[in-house]
Amino acid sequence: MSKIDGVMSYYAELLNAELNKAIIADNNDYGILAEAMKYSTIDGGKRIRPILLLEFYKLFGGKSAEAVKFATALEMIHSYSLVHDDLPCMDNDDFRRGKPSCHKAYGENIAVLTGDALLTSAFEYASSVTDISPERVIKAINILASAAGINGMVGGQVLDILSINLDTAEGLKKMYALKTGALLKSAAMIGCVLAGGDEKIEHCQRYADALGLAFQIVDDMLDVIGDESKLGKPVGSDEKNDKLTFVSIFGMEKAKQTVIDLTVDAKNCIDEIGGNGEFLKDFADYLASRTF
Amino acid sequence: MSKIDGVMSYYAELLNAELNKAIIADNNDYGILAEAMKYSTIDGGKRIRPILLLEFYKLFGGKSAEAVKFATALEMIHSYSLVHDDLPCMDNDDFRRGKPSCHKAYGENIAVLTGDALLTSAFEYASSVTDISPERVIKAINILASAAGINGMVGGQVLDILSINLDTAEGLKKMYALKTGALLKSAAMIGCVLAGGDEKIEHCQRYADALGLAFQIVDDMLDVIGDESKLGKPVGSDEKNDKLTFVSIFGMEKAKQTVIDLTVDAKNCIDEIGGNGEFLKDFADYLASRTF
User: Taking the model in full, what pTM does it have?
Assistant: First the structure.
């Protein structure tokens, strides 16, 4: 196992344990809701957002083990957005992470409520942090909610499902900056703010913006050249759906070069912050070069 | 206009103004989302939860005008729950407050996102309070999220849509205690906590529990004897849907008496707290005797 795989697998375990602690039904009568919430969060995804949050927290000298509660909250919000995105009235996706999506497994009504409950639990768990100063916790909650709401992730989702200006590179960038970029950026910002690194928050934002855009471009590239069995989802769907992507706009070569440039810029941000940011630089390389 | 009508109409205006301030799309491209959020909140309902929050805040000596941000957050959460409850996969209601429900007016996908954005904005707005101590704000956010989530409102909604144990008085009470009671209770608790009245929080909870149950019983009574044009919704739907209600379990007379007893108990709580709680006592009477 490479060093970065080792770190990621450590974080994966940590998140699973925390999600199990955070998601509890006080009463068995609605135990199915806790089950669907766990189904939609545990063992899922690469945990990129929590990793960013916790690594930026460490970079700025944060010491509290409770920062993991914020990382968990962030992952719950990411997961709720996937559950609602998959709904029949939205993207109507039957599979997610290689298994039936929440509404296929539990029904549409429970899927709506699973998303609602995950979003709400995120704020409940984040506001249960006691050993970081309340000023910092409130600021972090505000960053999290702003990133997830109308002027962040949900706004971006509106642009996506209504295909608003998605026929231009600018429009596409804007949609992704809101739909996926805002929450990624909040991860870096929250780590920074919880540790009191506010004066360098702009570097964190720049790193996360570059990383987020690179990530999306790689996603578009993988939809053309990826391996279906590794991705856990069908490839070629963008072309089939006549969907404009960074690859269809720029071509594969320019897309590749843009990912390289963005990754260099992300790593520069970490050097400008100073301190021990080796992992965050490796992480940018890792995400840029992923093949699944 | 009676005194209580005057106070309620003052609060209605205040809430409309605050909702207009709180719901802003930074960009016109997803302006439809802000429009749907306002459609689902402004000029809607009796604002019972915000009124309770602000009146308890006053009762415990709270002075900050920013408490209204929490009241607005609470109303956004109540409104989001109505938007999602009305969805085709949930209660499938075409009308709400005498006009087309959100998904009828804006489509199902925008309705899901409207609910998501309202829920998220609630925490954004609540965490933007600056002139109440951060310790109190975090505690209040935690109460709000707990009441709205899996072990509160959303859990209760699961019991309702899956009809879990709704064929007994106990099961029915439990469902309502979660589905509508938890958020009402949080209103009283948040007002109390924001003003630093924590040592009397149990009285606030008891008042709100009694008020909430009485409110639900009156709702069931109005479904039998109410005036459709005043209620803005069809009556007789519970019987038509073979739905067990407090009236069908207890009969009309015992239901009435229970409302009277609960209202007396609610008013006793206010006397036990002390201070100037006249409005909260009048409010309990008003809700118990409402005919629409």
Answer: 0.96
